[in-house]
Design goal:
- The protein is mainly alpha-helical.
- It contains four helices and three strands, in the order αααβββα.
- It has a three-stranded antiparallel sheet with strand order 1-2-3.
- The longest helix has 10 residues.
- The radius of gyration is 16 Å and the shape is flat.
- The relative contact order is 0.14.
Length: 91
């Protein structure tokens, strides 16, 4: 999907990592406590303001929703709640 300029077109999502990052930064102390009480405290440490377009396209192109797997060159990564927990530290 690379264009003549070598730039990948944007992927429209309902919310971007940048919007999430901005929301985290403006939470009040009490709100941060509530997030921690809901076992999502690890998300408060997130510093990702965006994703590279090439990586985003790779993920979209190689995710198999019927098998819940991210296809890799020689194997696949199973996308499970346990894998998400290990990656993001959330329930």
């Amino acid at each position: 999907m690379e264009s003549k300029r070598g730039v990948f077109p944007g992927i429209r999502t309902r919310s971007s990592p940048q919007q999430f990052f901005r929301c985290i930064q403006v939470l009040f102390f009490e709100q941060r406590i509530n997030v921690k009480e809901m076992c999502f405290g690890q998300l408060l440490n997130s510093r990702v303001g965006g994703l590279p377009e090439k990586l985003t396209h790779y993920m979209v192109d190689n995710f198999d929703p019927s098998a819940m797997e991210m296809k890799m060159r020689c194997s696949a990564i199973e996308v499970t709640s346990k894998a998400i927990h290990k990656l993001l530290g959330i329930p």
